């Protein structure tokens, strides 16, 4: 499954970013560590052998992360604001 990063915002209370990612017809939230080098427009693909592991198409690097699935874009943006400001 492929996904594209739509938006990246730094969390205020922890060293992490929250991403809005488009997968198919839905949007998902994805929390990543601050050291992971991802930006809006980057494409991700799931690793077929390991659940929760993603490959960055730009660099080929693997990293672990889970999606909070199945939002509309407006729902994803609202949830993003709640996560970032909590």
UniProtKB/TrEMBL annotation:
Protein name as catalogued: Uncharacterized protein
Species in which this protein is naturally found: Hafnia alvei
Taxon lineage: Bacteria, Pseudomonadati, Pseudomonadota, Gammaproteobacteria, Enterobacterales
């Amino acid at each position: 499954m492929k996904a594209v990063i739509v938006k990246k915002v730094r969390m205020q209370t922890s060293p992490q970013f929250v991403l809005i990612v488009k997968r198919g017809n839905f949007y998902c939230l994805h929390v990543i560590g601050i050291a992971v080098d991802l930006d809006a427009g980057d494409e991700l693909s799931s690793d077929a052998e390991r659940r929760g592991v993603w490959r960055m198409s730009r660099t080929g690097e693997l990293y672990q992360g889970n999606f909070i699935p199945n939002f509309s874009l407006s729902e994803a943006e609202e949830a993003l604001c709640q996560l970032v400001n909590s």
